[in-house]
UniProtKB/TrEMBL annotation, chain A:
It comes from the Bacteria. The keyword Kinase applies. The lineage of its organism: Bacteria, Pseudomonadati, Pseudomonadota, Alphaproteobacteria, Sphingomonadales. GO terms for molecular function: kinase activity. The keyword Kinase applies. This is HprK-related kinase A. It comes from Sphingomonas ginsenosidivorax. Keywords: Kinase, Transferase.
From TrEMBL, chain B:
Pfam families: NTP_transf_5. The lineage of its organism: Bacteria, Pseudomonadati, Pseudomonadota, Alphaproteobacteria, Sphingomonadales. Keywords: Transferase. GO terms for molecular function: transferase activity. This is Nucleotidyltransferase family protein.
Amino acid sequence: MRHAVAIRIGPIGFRVGSDWRAPVAALETLYRDYPRPDVPDFTVRLFARRPWRRFVRPSVEIGGDYMLPEAAPLPLSQGLLAAEMAMNLQMALGGRRYLLLHASAVERDGRALLMTGISGAGKSTLASLLAARGWRFMGDEFALLDPATGLVHAFPRLISLKNEGIAAAIAARPDARLGPLMPDTPKGDIRHMVPDARAIAAMDVAATPALLLFPRYGFAAEVRPVPPAEAFVRMTQASTNYVALGEAGFGALTRLIGAVPSLAVDYPDGASAVAQVEALWDAL
Amino acid sequence: MTDAWPLARALADPSTTAALDADGWTALLTMARAEQLIGTLAVRLQGLPMPASVVRILEDVRAGAEQGRRAALWEAEMARRALAPLGGPVVLLKGTAFVAAGMLAGQGRSIGDLDILVPRGDLDAVEAALLGAGWEWVKPDPYDDAYYRRWMHELPPLIHRERDRMIDVHHTILPLTARPTPDAAALIAARVDLGNGLSVLTPNDMIVHAAAHLFADGDLAGGLRNLWDIRCLVEEFGTEGLAERAVHHGLSGEVARALRLSASVFDGVATRSVDRLYLRRLLARDGWGRPTRPVTRFAFYVRSHWLRMPPAMLARHLWTKWRKSSSLKSLPVRA
């Protein structure tokens, strides 16, 4: 392809090829402190479906080793978003080494806190707020659970901030490096933030899971235990490759649910959430 | 070169990968994924020297293929249970047959849908039994449904509502509109029982089926994988009696072409000029996994329809499809 860049994020290497310079340039800038993979695990392609669409209302199609046939193209101004979506898609559809949990993860003292929930539940925001208070950021999209060891591996790709979360995250980390503001994407306003230097430097360090939270934003503060059977089922739904992994996935998830407490946390605002989470952590 | 020769070479002679650098490996793995041959490649290359990153990737691929094998066999067992009360033969086809019979062609093979062959007289009962056991129609369009029932060699595809897996129920191996008319009754009569209530075709009939699928039916999408199946079948079982069997099914030209192309792609035997165009199509894939040679591809797409039905019918069919939707993507006839 005309333009290409290779990046390693945690244990996963990507190669991104593009018909345009801009998305590759953005990736090179924002991922400049990340290592390069030897032979990448996945290939991503950003391309124009018709040759003239490289120039006339340029429209970025998403492809690669694995594709969703119905994925809609994005305008070139959202090329960085297309690249990030395409990389996540390769993981979601093709990842087999780890049980992929759609969760954010932070680490303290070698132990990992996993937070999962529907989009808008606040898992990304909470992870970035905790990272600003000294936790190590491991990722806000996928937590990689190794069926062989039970450890969680980091996948600290760019943090995808959305809508009102953008200002909140920048206020918490005013010195952070940021991608362009992309208004009016399919998910509203989006801006990417580079994880802090510590998250990148330690991205090959795995952690033992210690606590699983199901946060929910916009409710009066409350904590309730989630019974193991419910936690198990919710996590099968939060995993993109649970079925594909077969017995290995079942074993990994059973072990995780058996080993860590699962709690549902309702919170009215970020400050309360951080206080609730840290109190739960200290009580472990 | 923008074609898939490195993949063909690596499959046929795994030691050729010793010469690859990181970029060469990257291109090879990407091509193999795009051609759905990565599992086969992973099995073929196991134990050879390669970069640590490739070792890791291919370990995962083998684990994935093993899980795919298990899921395919489970799906076959589910179909067996649903159809057992009917008492008729159920013959597994393609990938599921290869793994169920423990054949070389099944090693690492990617398996999508479950394909079975049943006697044409059993079709209504089979359909009813599958619907009763949780399978549902995929295609809601009445034209597509009627087209399948009248002209195709299979029922419209069904999908299981809980397991999300497709089943294709064949009553023969080529569309009824195609010029060759394979002897479906003979395929079933010669079947090899696996001892678990399921059967597979004889190796010769498997080769005939693969060749029919490649050269008399589809547009050669996934053709490299099908050609590799044929090579494995020939390597494991030889070709004794194959020529007579191909004549019996009216597919001797297709089978001969399959053997020639397999020898050319995988064993470096010089190609006849008449086969060059097929080679261009079979290997039209670059190191980014992209399909190449759009003109050749389109020619084979047109050819596949031309082979499938007589001209007047083709015109009527395409006209109906075009009116229903101006997009080629929704053509119901699948490769």
